[in-house]
Write a structure and sequence with these properties.
Low-confidence stretches of chain A: none
Oligomer: heterodimer
Strand order of the largest sheet of chain B: 1-3-2-4-6-5-10-11-9-7-8
Distance between the termini of chain B: 12 Å
Mean pLDDT of chain A: 92
Low-confidence stretches of chain B: none
Largest interface: A-B, 50 and 70 residues
Number of helices of chain A: 3
Number of strands of chain A: 2
Number of helices of chain B: 16
Structural class of chain B: alpha/beta
Shape of chain B: globular
Order of helices and strands of chain A: HHHEE
Shape of chain A: flat
Helix content of chain B: 25-40%
Strand content of chain A: under 5%
Radius of gyration of chain B: 21 Å
Radius of gyration of chain A: 23 Å
Structural class of chain A: mainly alpha
CATH class of one domain in chain B: Alpha Beta
Order of helices and strands of chain B: HHHEHEHEHEHEEHEHEHHHHEHHEEH
CATH architecture of one domain in chain B: Alpha-Beta Complex
Number of strands of chain B: 11
CATH superfamily of one domain in chain B: Amidase signature (AS) domain
Largest sheet of chain B: 11 strands, mixed
Distance between the termini of chain A: 41 Å
Strand order of the largest sheet of chain A: 1-2
Chain lengths: ~100, ~500
Amino acid sequence: MALDKATVAQIAALARIRLSDAELEPLANELSQILDWVEQLNEVDTTGVAPMASAAATQLPMRDDAVTDGGCRDAILGNAPRAARGFFAVPKVVE
Amino acid sequence: MSDPALLALDLAGARDGLTRKLFSARELTSAYNDAVAEAKRLNAYITPTPERALAMADAADRRLARGEALPLDGIPVAVKDLYCTKGVLTTAGSHILDGFHPPYESTVTEKLWRAGAVMLGKANLDEFAMGSSNTTSWYGPVENPWHRPGDNRPLVPGGSSGGSAAAVAARAALAAIGTDTGGSIRQPASFCGIVGLKPTYGRCSRWGVVAYASSLDHPGPMGRTVRDVAILLRAMAGHDPRDSTSAPVPVPDFEAALGGDIAGLRVGIPREYRVDGMPDEIEVLWQQGVEWLRASGAAPVEISLPMTRYALPAYYIVALAEASSNLARYDGVRFGLRVAGDSLEEMYELTRAAGFGAEVRRRVLIGTYVLSAGYYDAYYLKAQRVRALIARDFARAFERVDCILTPTAPSAAFAIGEKSGDPIEMYLNDVFTVPANLAGVPAASVPAGLTGNGLPLGLQITGRAFDEETVLRVAEVLERAAQFRHLPAFVAGGGS
């Protein structure tokens, strides 16, 4: 699968990573090479094989619907690049 | 005891010396704090924590004096900087986690401290554990303490747990913990001449470990000897309700499994592990390993793992898809780096562009692509189906054999910058280690010999799920046979 610059720009937008125009061409080449390489999987007949999402054999465990954590707002906000009045502060999102 | 003599002890030896009061935990930790400083040029640590280490050592000394010693009391360890440590800078080797001081402690490190271990510091790693040479860290590459004789070019320690491996090899840590998503414990263990174990998936909790690929990430121990790794694993393992994939199974006394007889044990030798371009000396060492096990009474059996060659491409789809999802949380809002933008969207994009290095960006982009509408089935589901076939290969093999012997990696340590910039060439480092991550089965690397130019090589033992005991027992037989006593060019304290 050869990716062009426009496709790479579109993936970057989905991934929320800003790329400069100069970065698109080399990345298109690198990503195309990697995708070409992984496409050897198409040689494998996987008819009737169920996808394996995890090696964990157990079913997801159930637990009580109870609060086990909390009351640590200040500790969490302590890592925030910007916080104000007990909230994370970000650029304005509503006009 | 002198510092060099203290640093020369392995974990089991140090535990013995502490119990017999030949030296104090404070003396041992002080020697290691000095060693961490002496080894600074290797860049194995991002954040040394010498004061905390001494305080932990003093607490261990008080317990030892009362005769209430814990299993790891006074044992100084390095922690890969992917484990969250409460109040201690945790970086994952990334710029995007600038200044992040977790308000909680990972389950595995919590268990180590409860067992009395001492934290020397946070060890360097590839950014978000993405790499096989520890050259992608925001904090710079780690240097392997081994050199080719007569050649001073710095070599890579392997990755991604490269700082952990280099620190243990250079005697700047008595042991270490790492994580292994596609070989990140075993390949650096091989490159640095130490022992590393990737346990069964679910054996050690992932809670509080910065996620790369959640279905493939495995916390595990690294040490000087198989016994040291067995001791450490026991303290790290166990069911954790906070990790839904943590296995509710009992934790055996792994150390007690050592020294047992392996007569009659069937050891699989998979023919598919002879890859193009693998140096002859690795093939020779592998054969030597077969002979060592045969001489101990084990029965080598040729087996086939036909899907082996598809493990790497399947891994790179599954791992990168999971990574793109896991790394979506780094947005500059709640912690870490923020690059200001005029809108929220722009802030996200600029923060992630500045915060992620080239390899992480590449992996997130591919992961995003293979999960995107129209490609999900062709790439992601296809890879998950191939993953099922790889797991089936192992399940079938383990009907006939008790464990599998292979090389750990297709090469020894290489020089920093010696490989081309081709990402696929770097990915091929993990060709022998990735299958065990996909299948979730335990595997250990043991130093078994040196290359013609004086660099360590490991052999890998892979076992059945939750049968680390057989893996460790066979690994110890290999260790005894190989008598690997070589030291790297640099060891703290000068070596003795």
